[in-house]
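Quick one:
INPUT:
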C-alpha cells in the first residue's frame, strides 16, 4: 500500500460551518464513499443490487465496492485551483505550500466543480489500470465520469475520448503539479479503502436504467453526509487526516456515523417477513376471515407463476371487489420473490391519495412497519409523521444540506427534510400518479426519482382514468419499470382490451421483449406477465365474484334546467316518502350548485342534504367530506350514522375517492366506463354489512342497483352530446357512443359479465351508429385530439431506456422546469384562490365574520412565514383552473407583496370581498364574477370557464 500524504488545506465544505473553519475534501470524499457502501446494504433492495451488478458484469459484492469507490470520487473536481480560490485564505496557504497558480482564463474555462469531476475521473481511473479505449457506453471509466458529472442532478454532454484520456492538455485550469499529485493520491486511497475492483470494458452497453440508479444513490450519499449537523459534529477530528493510515482510520469511524445518519433520516429498509403469509393473516386486522373469489384466486395461483423475478400483475374487477387488498398481497408475493420491499401506490387525484394513505399506513403497521409518506401537491399540509410533535415541526428550522458551489441547497434540503418525511425516497408511498410520472420527464434530479421507484413495487390504481397525454407518460414509465426489473400491479374497474394490452406490452418492451403480445383481460380476472420470459399467464379457473348483480339503467333526455330538476325530484319521490339515500352526480360545479339549491328549496329540512365539489375552501371541503363519510359510508363501520333520508349532490370527485354506499344513483351522461364507476357506489356493500349494522335498505330500492342517466337535450328531446355548459369535460363522441350503446342494450347490465364487452364496444372502430355523420365528425375530433396529446407527451418525456446511451444521457435531465409546478395532465393547470374579506377600515380577514386576520407578516425567524401560518392560509384556499383572466388582476387581487418570497404563497390569488351594509360584495376577477357563498363554495354569475 502506497503511503500518501494528504493536504488538509484542500477544503470540501465551508458554508454553514463556524467562521474560519472548513471540512477537508479528503474527509468528505471518504464520508460519501462509506455512506454509499452503507446505503448499498441498508437502503437498496436485493433487486436493485442485482440489476446494478449485472449491468457492470460484476458480482454483487464487487458492484458494492465499485459504487462506493465512484461515490468517493464525486467531488474530486474540487481539488482544482478555481474551487479552492473561493476560500482566499486557504488558497493563499496552498500557493505557499507549492500548489501552482493557474491563469484566470484557464480557471474560468472549467465551469462548475462537477464538470471538473467528469473531466478528471476517466484519466484517474486509467491511472489505476482501468481501460479507456472502446465504445464509450461500454467503458466503465467513461460512464463513471458521466455519473459523477451528474451528481448535482443534471448530466452533462459526454466528454470527448481525447479529453477524457488527457484532460490537463485541454484544460490546464485543472492544475498540474501538486494539484495532480493530490488528486491521484485521493483516487488511490479511495480505491484502497473500498477495495474496488478494476473494470475494463463491459461485454454489453451499460444500460441507462442502472446508470441513473447508481447516480441517484451517489447523490443521496452525498446529501446525507453534507448536512450541517454532521459536518459540525466531526469537524474537530478532521485535522489529523494527513496520511493513508489516517484516511483508513477515518473511513472506519465514518461507518458508525453513516449508519446513524441513515437512521436519523428514517430511510433504512424495512424488515420484510421471511416468508409469505396467507391472505387472511395479512388482512386479519380488517378483519377479512375469508378472501373473496378474486383475492382467493391470486393467493392460490400467483405464487406458482413467480419464477424468482419480477413481473406485471393486471387486475380487472368491479368497484368494491377488494382490488386494493389483492394488489397489496400480490405486491408482497412479488416483492419477496424478486427482492423489493417498498411500495408506491399511484392514484389519479389528491382525494384518492388521501383516502388510500390511511389504508396503506394501517396495512404497513401490521405487515411492514415503516413510515408511509403521502405525495401530492398539498401533502405538506398533513401531519403524517407522529414522531415529531406538530408544534415543534411547525416552529423548528430544518437541518440544511451544504451542497452546490459551497452554499446551502434548498433542493437537497427539501428532498431530505420535507414535512412529509423524505417523500419518494421513503420505502412506502401513497401519491398521485403525477409524482411517479415526473420520473419520465427530463427534470433535474431525475436520477433520485429513478433510485426511489426502482426499489418499489409500483401499484397503479384506476388505470382507466387518464387522458391520452397522461396515458402516454404512463406507458413510458412502465417501460422504465421493466428496465429496472421491478414488479408492477395495474388495477382497473373498467379497462378496455386495447388499453390493457398497451400497458402490459410497455412493461414487456422495457424488459427486452419488443414483439407485442395479444392481451385479453378477463372481467373479473387477473393475469401475470413474467419479466424474464415476457409470457402472460392467467389462472386455470375463471374468477367468479360474490357480488354479481344486475344494474338497472334508465335514460332520460332533459329539456333544459327546469325539466332536469323536475326529473330528479320525481326520481327522489320514493326516497322523500319512505326514506333512503341517493347520490346526484353532476358534470360541472355550477350544475351541482344549482341542483343542490333546487333540492334544498324543495325539501327544506326534510332531507339530510349534502354537497361536494372541487370549488370549496380546503377546510370546508374536508368538513363536507367527513360529513358525507359519516352519513353514507360503510354501514357497519364505527362512526357511520346513516340518515333516514339522505342525498348528496356532487361532481366527479365522488367517483373514486370515497367509500360511499347509496340506494340510488342519478348521474349526468358520462363515458360508459365512468358511469359504471359511479354505479359502483350503488349497493356497494353487501347484505352481510347491513345485517351486522342492523339496518335494511328501503323496500323501493329493490334487490339490485338502479341508475338514472340524464342527457341534456333540446326542446324536442333530441340529445345534445356537446352542451356549451359542459365545455370540454368529456369528448362528445364518447358520450354519443355511450348513449347509443345504452339505448340498444335491452334489460339490465349484468355486473360483471356484461362489463368488458360494453367497455370495449364503446371504443370499437366499427361502432354502428344511428347517426353516423355526427359520430364520424365527433370521432375525428377525438382521435385528432388524442393524437396531438400523444405527440406532445412524446416531445415532453425522456426516451425509452433502450434508446438512452452515453451520447444522449444528458437529455434525461436537461429541463429547467420546477417539478412542483408541473402537471402531467394537459389542461390540469390550476391556481389557488383565497377569498378575503375587507371591513370598512380596510382590515383584511379570512372569514366573513372578521375573526381570523389575513397573515401578511411572517412570525418566524427573519420574518419568515411559519408552517402553521402557511397552513392556515391554505386551509382557506380554493383550486381554480388557470386562464387568461389571471392577466387582468388588480393589485389587491394579486398575491400579497409580503408573500413573494414564500414558495407556497407566491402564486396565491386573492378574491376580495368588501363589506357592504348587509353583506360583502366582490369586484370582477378579470372577466370572471366570482364570490364565496358560505354553503355553495365559489359561485360565478357568468360561467366563462369550467372547473370540474
Amino acid at each position: 500500500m502506497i503511503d500518501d500524504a494528504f493536504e488538509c488545506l484542500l477544503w470540501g465544505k465551508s458554508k454553514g460551518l463556524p467562521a474560519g473553519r472548513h471540512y477537508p475534501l479528503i474527509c468528505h470524499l471518504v464520508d460519501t464513499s462509506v455512506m454509499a457502501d452503507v446505503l448499498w446494504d441498508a437502503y437498496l433492495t436485493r433487486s436493485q443490487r442485482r440489476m446494478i451488478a449485472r449491468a457492470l458484469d460484476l458480482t454483487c459484492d464487487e458492484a458494492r465496492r465499485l459504487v462506493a469507490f465512484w461515490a468517493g470520487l464525486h467531488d474530486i473536481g474540487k481539488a482544482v485551483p478555481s474551487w479552492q480560490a473561493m476560500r482566499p485564505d486557504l488558497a493563499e496557504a496552498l500557493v505557499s505550500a507549492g500548489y501552482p497558480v493557474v491563469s484566470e482564463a484557464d480557471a474560468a474555462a472549467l465551469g462548475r466543480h462537477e464538470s471538473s469531476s467528469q473531466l478528471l475521473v476517466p484519466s484517474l481511473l486509467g491511472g489505476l489500470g482501468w481501460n479507456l479505449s472502446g465504445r464509450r457506453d461500454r467503458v466503465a471509466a467513461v460512464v463513471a465520469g458521466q455519473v459523477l458529472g451528474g451528481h448535482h442532478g443534471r448530466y452533462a454532454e459526454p466528454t470527448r475520448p481525447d479529453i477524457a484520456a488527457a484532460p490537463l492538455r485541454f484544460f490546464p485550469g485543472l492544475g498540474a503539479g501538486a494539484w495532480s499529485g493530490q488528486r491521484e493520491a485521493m483516487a488511490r486511497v479511495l480505491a484502497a479503502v473500498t477495495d474496488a475492483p478494476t473494470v475494463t470494458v463491459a461485454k454489453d452497453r451499460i444500460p441507462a436504467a442502472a446508470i441513473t440508479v447508481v447516480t441517484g444513490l451517489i447523490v443521496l450519499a452525498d446529501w446525507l453526509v453534507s448536512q450541517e449537523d454532521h459536518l459540525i459534529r466531526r469537524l474537530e477530528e478532521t485535522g489529523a487526516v494527513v496520511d493513508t493510515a489516517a484516511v483508513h482510520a477515518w473511513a472506519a469511524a465514518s461507518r458508525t456515523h453513516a449508519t446513524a445518519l441513515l437512521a436519523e433520516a428514517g430511510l433504512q429498509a424495512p424488515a420484510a417477513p421471511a416468508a409469505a403469509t396467507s391472505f387472511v393473516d395479512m388482512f386479519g386486522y380488517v378483519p377479512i376471515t375469508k378472501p373473496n373469489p378474486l383475492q382467493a384466486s391470486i393467493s392460490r395461483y400467483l405464487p406458482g407463476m413467480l419464477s424468482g423475478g419480477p413481473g406485471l400483475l393486471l387486475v380487472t374487477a368491479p368497484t368494491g371487489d377488494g382490488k386494493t387488498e389483492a394488489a397489496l398481497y400480490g405486491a408482497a408475493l412479488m416483492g419477496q420473490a424478486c427482492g423489493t420491499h417498498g411500495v408506491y401506490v399511484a392514484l389519479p387525484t389528491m382525494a384518492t391519495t388521501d383516502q388510500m394513505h390511511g389504508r396503506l399506513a394501517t396495512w404497513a403497521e401490521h405487515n411492514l412497519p415503516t413510515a408511509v409518506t403521502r405525495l401530492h401537491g398539498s401533502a405538506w399540509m398533513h401531519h403524517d409523521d407522529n414522531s415529531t410533535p406538530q408544534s415543534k415541526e411547525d416552529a423548528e428550522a430544518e437541518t440544511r444540506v451544504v451542497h452546490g458551489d459551497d452554499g446551502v441547497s434548498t433542493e437537497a434540503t427539501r428532498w431530505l427534510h420535507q414535512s412529509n418525511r423524505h417523500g419518494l425516497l421513503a420505502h412506502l408511498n401513497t401519491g398521485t400518479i403525477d409524482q411517479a410520472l415526473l420520473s419520465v420527464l427530463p427534470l433535474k434530479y431525475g436520477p433520485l426519482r429513478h433510485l426511489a421507484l426502482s426499489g418499489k413495487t409500483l401499484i397503479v390504481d384506476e388505470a382507466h382514468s387518464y387522458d391520452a397525454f397522461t396515458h402516454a407518460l404512463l406507458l413510458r414509465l412502465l417501460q422504465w419499470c421493466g428496465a429496472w426489473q421491478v414488479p408492477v400491479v395495474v388495477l382497473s374497474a373498467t379497462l378496455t382490451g386495447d388499453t390493457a394490452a398497451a400497458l402490459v406490452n410497455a412493461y414487456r418492451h422495457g424488459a427486452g421483449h419488443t414483439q407485442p403480445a395479444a392481451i385479453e383481460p378477463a372481467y373479473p380476472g387477473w393475469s401475470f406477465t413474467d419479466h424474464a420470459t415476457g409470457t402472460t399467464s392467467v389462472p386455470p379457473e375463471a374468477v367468479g365474484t360474490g357480488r354479481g348483480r344486475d344494474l338497472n339503467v334508465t335514460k332520460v333526455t332533459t329539456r333544459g334546467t327546469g325539466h332536469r330538476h323536475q326529473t330528479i325530484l320525481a326520481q327522489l319521490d320514493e326516497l322523500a316518502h319512505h326514506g333512503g339515500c341517493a347520490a346526484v352526480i353532476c358534470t360541472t360545479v355550477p350544475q351541482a350548485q344549482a341542483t343542490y339549491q333546487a333540492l334544498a328549496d324543495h325539501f327544506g329540512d326534510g332531507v339530510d342534504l349534502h354537497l361536494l365539489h372541487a370549488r370549496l375552501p380546503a377546510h370546508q371541503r374536508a368538513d363536507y367530506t367527513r360529513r358525507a363519510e359519516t352519513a353514507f359510508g360503510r354501514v357497519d363501520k364505527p362512526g357511520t350514522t346513516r340518515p333516514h333520508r339522505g342525498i348528496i349532490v356532487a361532481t366527479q370527485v365522488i367517483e373514486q375517492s370515497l367509500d360511499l354506499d347509496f340506494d340510488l344513483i342519478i348521474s349526468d351522461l358520462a363515458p360508459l366506463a365512468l358511469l359504471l364507476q359511479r354505479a359502483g357506489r350503488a349497493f356497494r356493500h353487501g347484505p352481510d354489512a347491513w345485517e351486522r349494522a342492523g339496518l335494511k335498505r328501503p323496500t323501493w330500492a329493490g334487490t339490485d342497483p338502479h341508475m338514472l342517466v340524464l342527457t341534456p337535450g333540446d326542446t324536442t328531446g333530441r340529445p345534445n352530446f356537446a352542451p356549451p355548459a359542459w365545455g370540454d369535460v368529456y369528448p362528445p363522441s364518447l358520450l354519443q357512443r355511450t348513449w347509443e350503446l345504452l339505448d340498444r342494450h335491452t334489460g339490465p347490465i349484468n355486473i360483471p359479465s356484461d362489463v368488458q364487452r360494453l367497455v370495449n364496444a364503446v371504443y370499437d372502430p366499427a361502432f354502428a351508429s344511428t347517426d353516423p355523420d355526427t359520430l364520424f365528425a365527433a370521432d375525428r375530433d377525438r382521435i385528432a385530439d388524442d393524437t396531438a396529446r400523444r405527440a406532445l407527451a412524446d416531445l415532453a418525456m425522456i426516451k425509452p431506456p433502450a434508446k438512452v446511451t452515453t451520447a444522449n444521457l444528458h437529455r434525461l435531465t436537461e429541463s429547467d422546469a420546477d417539478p412542483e409546478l408541473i402537471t402531467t395532465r394537459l389542461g390540469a393547470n390550476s391556481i389557488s384562490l383565497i377569498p378575503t374579506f375587507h371591513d370598512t377600515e380596510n382590515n383584511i380577514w379570512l372569514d366573513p365574520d372578521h375573526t381570523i386576520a389575513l397573515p401578511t407578516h411572517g412570525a418566524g425567524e427573519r420574518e419568515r412565514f411559519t408552517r402553521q401560518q402557511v397552513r392556515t392560509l391554505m386551509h382557506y384556499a380554493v383550486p381554480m383552473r388557470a386562464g387568461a383572466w389571471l392577466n387582468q388582476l388588480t393589485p389587491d387581487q394579486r398575491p400579497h407583496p409580503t408573500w413573494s418570497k414564500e414558495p407556497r404563497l407566491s402564486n396565491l390569488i386573492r378574491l376580495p370581498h368588501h363589506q357592504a351594509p348587509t353583506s360583502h360584495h366582490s369586484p370582477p376577477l378579470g372577466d370572471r364574477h366570482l364570490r364565496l357563498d358560505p354553503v355553495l363554495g365559489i359561485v360565478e354569475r357568468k360561467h366563462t370557464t369550467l372547473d370540474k
